[in-house]
């Protein structure tokens, strides 16, 4: 008798990742400069992260905040994005510590402005001992660049035969793969984000621009995820 394919019940959601898309278009729709869209996006980050941690108790959240491709934008816009990031970190620093949220980054942050690097490293060090919730920000991140970095970091002569041989050399070492990746603004692609880690992730695409992605929108995404059956290639 032929055996029936088995499915794996969804484990609790451990890690949700967001591709924060649509800030510029949100601003254009309102006849505002693009910087205002990024400011609105940062405010939304604050609200969604707080809600996801406190109401849904999701252990890991990753935000795709600045990609290696984003350097092609105007110098003025790039500078504005980094200034907004600095303001966000300074403002949220006490809350991260109070609520015991660990901050991590993925990507090569050495290209970022020195003042932003300093602030990031300070908050990362201050929150390093927290383990219940982790906020991971992808800055100057690109998955292809991450893979090349991992290959260059391998010890000379290292024999790579399994995933576990290369995983410790990725930027995301020690962070579980995302269960769910949410992309806003209607685009339906990964855009060089967590290409290896997303091997068995579920995807949720919404036309909503990031600054409009509120708590109800997150609830809707999580409800959609909860009604899926993850098979991990087993059936």
Protein topology:
Blueprint: E1 15-19, H1 23-29, H2 34-54, E2 60-67, H3 75-98, E3 101-106, H4 114-127, E4 133-141, H5 143-153, H6 163-166, E5 180-183, E6 202-205, H7 215-226
Parallel strand pairs: 1-2, 1-5, 2-4, 3-4, 5-6
Helix pairs in contact: 1-2, 2-3, 3-4
Summarize the structure.
With 235 residues, the protein is of the alpha/beta class. Helix content is 40%, strand content 15%.
What integer is the average pLDDT? 93
User: How many domains in all?
Assistant: 1
Report the portion of residues in β strands.
15-25%
The ordered string of helix (H) and strand (E) elements is EHHEHEHEHHEEH
What does the largest sheet look like? 6 strands, parallel
| N/C terminus separation | 17 Å
CATH topology: Undecaprenyl pyrophosphate synthetase
Radius of gyration: 18 Å
Overall structural class, as computed from helix and strand content, comes to alpha/beta
CATH architecture: 3-Layer(aba) Sandwich
CATH first level: which class?
Answer: Alpha Beta
Poorly predicted tracts of residues: 1-6
How many helices?
7
Helix content: 25-40%
The shape is globular
Count all strands and give the number.
Answer: 6
Annotation keywords:
235 residues; alpha/beta; Undecaprenyl pyrophosphate synthetase; six-stranded parallel beta sheet; disordered N terminus
Describe the model.
By secondary structure, the protein is α/β, with parallel strands linked by helices. It has one domain: Undecaprenyl pyrophosphate synthetase, CATH 3.40.1180.10. It is 40% helix and 15% strand. The chain contains seven helices and six strands. The protein has a six-stranded parallel β-sheet with strand order 3-4-2-1-5-6, with helices on both faces. Residues 1-6 have low confidence and may be disordered.
């Amino acid at each position: 008798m032929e055996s029936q394919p088995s499915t794996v019940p969804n484990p609790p959601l451990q890690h949700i990742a967001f591709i924060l898309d649509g800030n510029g278009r949100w601003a254009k729709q309102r006849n505002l400069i693009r910087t205002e869209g990024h400011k609105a996006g940062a405010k939304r980050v604050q609200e969604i992260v707080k809600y996801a941690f406190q109401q849904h108790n999701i252990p890991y959240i990753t935000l795709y905040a600045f990609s290696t491709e984003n350097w092609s934008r105007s110098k003025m816009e790039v500078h504005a994005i980094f200034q907004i990031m600095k303001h966000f970190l300074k403002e949220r620093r006490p809350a991260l510590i109070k609520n015991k949220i660990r901050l991590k980054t993925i990507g090569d942050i050495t290209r970022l402005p020195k003042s932003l690097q300093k602030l990031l490293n300070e908050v990362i060090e201050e929150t390093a001992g927290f383990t219940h919730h982790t906020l991971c920000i992808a800055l100057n991140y690109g998955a292809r660049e991450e893979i090349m970095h991992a290959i260059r970091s391998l010890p000379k002569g290292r024999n790579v035969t399994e995933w576990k041989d290369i995983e410790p050399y990725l930027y995301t070492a020690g962070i579980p793969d995302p269960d769910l990746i949410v992309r806003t603004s209607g685009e339906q692609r990964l855009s060089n984000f967590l290409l290896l880690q997303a091997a068995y992730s579920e995807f949720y695409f919404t036309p909503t621009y990031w600054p409009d992605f509120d708590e109800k929108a997150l609830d809707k995404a999580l409800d959609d995820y909860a009604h899926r059956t993850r098979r991990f290639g087993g059936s």
